[in-house]
Automatic annotation (TrEMBL):
Aminoacyl-tRNA synthetase as UniProt keyword: no
A single MF term (Gene Ontology): betaine-aldehyde dehydrogenase (NAD+) activity
Family: Belongs to the aldehyde dehydrogenase family.
Pathway: Amine and polyamine biosynthesis; betaine biosynthesis via choline pathway; betaine from betaine aldehyde: step 1/1
Protein name per Swiss-Prot or TrEMBL: Betaine-aldehyde dehydrogenase
Source organism per UniProt: Lentibacillus persicus
Keywords on record: NAD, Oxidoreductase
Length: 489
């Protein structure tokens, strides 16, 4: 089996230590790839290459229209290799190939969006209050960007960082999750094919506590953009204080989904499932906290449970599979413990709550889709992210109570409201402290709209106009057209 390498200064290189990591298929634990395991010295070399390319190279001053053209070329190559990328993503994460195909289309869309934006920002002329002067604002790249991504949507999360960073003229070092590096490696091959200059994009492969920590601390990195868990995010914030780096954090979520009695019942049941069971619930915006009006609670839970029982688990490469395995044994054990804690605290398992029994699923990290009822906001299953196919159900009787329950969280990534009363929906949305709120929908995002969290769900916004702005510095340029001595001193 070939060992996949790091990409540093335009070349594919083995790690200095020679260390190698095996990448596992979570469906059957087979080794699907071997990749070079970077460490601090590899990371320093990658940062030095990105620094040199930014300080001495032409990329930052390349006309924005040309940078945009190159980002568009990357989108075209992703579209060309869509099927190969989708299959790589599925074998690495366990998700169904159909979900991975949607991801690849979204990813190409993200590159196209930022390609189009690259040359649309001509800065701003300010009306100067000083006679005989001009005043203007220009946007410039931040410099060397460190980019750290999680395992749940490996290439999608990478695309939200790579495309705007390149469009804005930065250089970068990316570290994908050590568990799921395969599609990121492939996209670096495509960026090389597209003609991205040497040193502009660099890829290191390895664990967070060495490679990620070096990226976060290193004084030659100007910006760190991180997607992952809250605890890692806090460590990165501390490390980034070494040289007061720009910081963009997309952290976790524990997302409420409020269902009022007047909502379209079948649609709300269907969407409550879509909110949480895609990719086995390993979605930052998964609607894991179902908050249902008491008058329909019992019927709603009954209908939900009936449908959840029918979810088909299996190999993501089998067209009939609706839900794949969890990412790793470690993560499976966390989800098992999370549900056990919920049971001890008084939650009732309405369906699931265990591993499946089918012999063909025993080698994979499977957990049954699970509905927990009798939940209250003081329980850890309602407060902690969990990140598995588990939904908790709470009851409410008034609009105010629904909003209070929804906001009772350290997270503020996303939320949903299902009702046919639009005024009521708008009243709730105005009070919900989350970066994205859906009315009569769940989990929808697109490149044109900003994405990010309130509270401990993060700092900054990816996607949309703000997604480009994260990778830009703002410079004010004042010019005196009639310089004269002031004669104060
Ligand atoms: P994680 O925090 O364990 O790891 C994320 C990345 O950080 C990995 O590449 C890891 O190697 C690296 N890392 C770990 N320790 C580090 C350190 N000390 N310094 C620097 N880097 C370090 O998260 P995960 O388990 O890979 O992903 C799941 C989490 O990601 C969930 O909490 C989920 O909600 C979150 N997430 C958020 C969004 C969003 O848009 N807000 C999107 C996807 C995932």
């Amino acid at each position: 089996m070939n060992i996949k390498k790091q990409f540093i200064d335009g070349a594919w290189v083995a790690s200095e230590s020679g260390a190698v990591r095996e990448i596992i298929n979570p469906f059957n634990q087979e080794v699907i790839a071997k990749v070079a395991e970077s460490d601090e010295s590899d990371t320093k070399a990658a940062i030095a290459a990105a620094r040199k390319a930014f300080d001495d190279g032409d990329w930052a001053s390349t006309p924005a229209i040309e940078r945009g053209g190159l980002v568009r070329r990357i989108a075209e190559l992703i579209e060309r290799d869509r099927e190969e990328l989708a299959e790589l993503e599925s074998i690495d994460t366990g998700k169904t190939v159909e979900e991975s195909r949607w991801d690849m289309d979204d990813i190409a869309g993200v590159f196209r969006y930022f390609a189009d934006m690259a040359d649309k920002d001509g800065g701003e002329i300010i009306e100067s209050p000083i006679p005989n002067s001009t005043s203007r604002v220009v946007h410039e790249p931040v410099g060397v960007c460190g980019q750290i991504t999680p395992w749940n949507y490996p290439l999608l999360q990478a695309s939200w960082k790579l495309a705007p960073a390149l469009a804005a003229g930065n250089t970068l070092v990316m570290k994908p999750s050590e568990i799921t590096p395969l599609t990121s490696i492939k996209v670096f091959e495509l960026m090389e094919e597209a003609g991205v200059p040497a040193g502009v994009v660099n890829l290191v492969l390895g664990p967070g506590n060495s490679v990620g920590a070096e990226l976060s601390e290193n004084n030659d990195v100007d910006l760190i953009s991180f997607t992952g868990g809250i605890e890692t995010g806090k460590r990165i914030m501390q490390a980034a204080s070494s040289n007061v780096k720009n910081l963009a954090l997309e952290l976790g979520g524990k997302n409420p989904n409020i269902v009022f009695a007047d909502a379209a019942f079948e649609t709300a049941v269907d969407q409550a499932m879509n909110a949480v069971f895609f990719h086995a619930g390993q979605i930052c915006s998964a609607g894991t906290r179902l908050i249902v009006e008491d008058s329909i609670h019992d019927n709603f839970v009954e209908a939900l449970v009936e449908r959840v029982k029918k979810i088909k688990l299996g190999n993501g490469f089998d067209a009939s599979t609706q839900m794949g395995p969890l990412i790793s044994e470690d993560h499976l054990n966390k989800v098992i413990q999370y549900v056990e804690n919920g049971k001890k605290e008084g939650a009732t398992v309405a369906v699931g709550g265990d591993r499946p029994e089918e012999p063909e699923l025993q080698n994979g990290f499977f957990y049954l889709p699970t509905v927990l009822t009798d939940c209250t906001t003081d329980m850890s299953v309602v407060q902690d992210e969990g990140f598995g196919p588990v939904i908790t159900v709470e009851k409410f009787s008034t609009e105010e109570e629904a909003v209070r329950l929804a906001n009772d969280s350290i997270y503020g990534l996303s939320g949903g409201v299902f009702t046919n009363d639009i005024a009521k929906a708008e009243r709730c949305v105005a009070k919900m402290r989350m970066g994205t709120v859906w009315i009569n929908d769940v989990n929808l995002y697109f490149p044109q709209a900003p994405w990010g969290g309130y509270k401990q769900s993060g700092i900054g916004r990816e996607l949309g106009k703000t997604g480009l702005e994260e990778y830009q510095e703002t410079k004010h340029i004042f010019q005196n057209l009639k310089p004269e001595s002031v004669n104060w001193f």
